[in-house]
Amino acid sequence: EFAVSRAEEMVASGVDIIDIGGESTRPGSPSVPVAEELARVMPALYALQETGKALSVDTCKPEVMREAIIAGADMINDINGFQAPGAIEAVVNSDCGLCVMHMQGTPQDMQAQPVYTDVVAEVIAFLRERIAALEAAGVDRERICVDPGLGFGKTVEHNYALLKNTERIADELGLPVLIGLSRKSMIGAVTGRPVEERLAGSLAGALAAVAQGAKIIRVHDVAETVDALKVWRAATID
Ligand code: 9MG
Questions:
Q1: By the 8 A CB rule, do 145 and 216 touch?
Q2: Contact (Cβ atoms closer than 8 angstroms) between residue 31 and residue 108
Q3: pLDDT digits 0-9 by tens, 111-139
Q4: Burial of residue 1, with CB atoms counted within 10 A of its CB: 0-12 exposed, 13-18 middle, 19 or more buried
């Protein structure tokens, strides 16, 4: 019931895609058994179909991917880049969209000590390899979008380096880029604000991402982000 009322709010605010997840991806979050994740995700996935909006399912588990696709999910959002055994096989014979994200480590340990020599080049190389793996299995490239995974095994500096290189990521990979930075610690690090006071910083980050070519923005505050984008577009696009 909570998911439906939250989704109705998002639809009224102008959301395009609703992302449904049954396992927290926050730093330190424990993994959830498959049965538990299915029990959380599937009722919401069925109930939210009445919104008429595209539904994305945020999961790393092939079993959940398969069930979600059978139930009509429009997109699978895998923060693990479809690396789990069976993940590619679970999505290949469908036409749902795929979000391929980069993460260093796992949600349990990813923020312990993220290390890169060249974060932008390494993230691009990872995403390139995952796209190749998906295409080699028979996935049509047009189904894929990529995500540098801000906050997933990255320091604040890594996150901003990736954000500033959104256009390069899109150009080098030739695919739409999804950026998620809403309320994340990279916003808190610059503003000094706790999570419940990060709206303004998140809006600024969302506009910066779109200005640099991001095609999908993952946000919590839909109405505010839609308004900010409308004004930004009116002010910058003829
Ligand atoms: C589930 N989730 C939380 N943050 C995310 C982000 O930045 N990108 C994607 N693809 N999923 C996310």
A1: yes
A2: yes
A3: 788 999 999 999 999 999 999 999 999 99
A4: exposed
Give tens-digit pLDDT for 38-80. Answer: 999 999 999 999 999 999 999 999 999 999 999 999 999 999 9
Amino acid, single-letter form, for residue 147: D
Q: Cβ(23) to ligand 1 under 6 A?
A: no
78 lines ligand 1 (CB under 6 A): no
Sheet of 17-21, strand order = 17-21, 54-58, 75-78, 97-101, 144-147
Q: Is 53 exposed, middle or buried (0-12, 13-18, 19+ CB in 10 A)?
A: middle
Helix or strand (DSSP H, E) at 35: helix 34-48
CA atoms of 21 and 5, how far apart (whole Å)? 16
Does the pTM of the predicted model rise above 0.90? Answer: yes
| Interhelix angle 119-137/166-173, nearest 10 degrees | 30
- Provide, rounded to the nearest whole percent, the portion of the chain with pLDDT above 70: 100
Nearest CA to ligand 1 atom 6: 180
198 is catalytic: no
**Whether the CB of 143 sits within 6 Å of ligand 1:** no
pLDDT at 111: 79
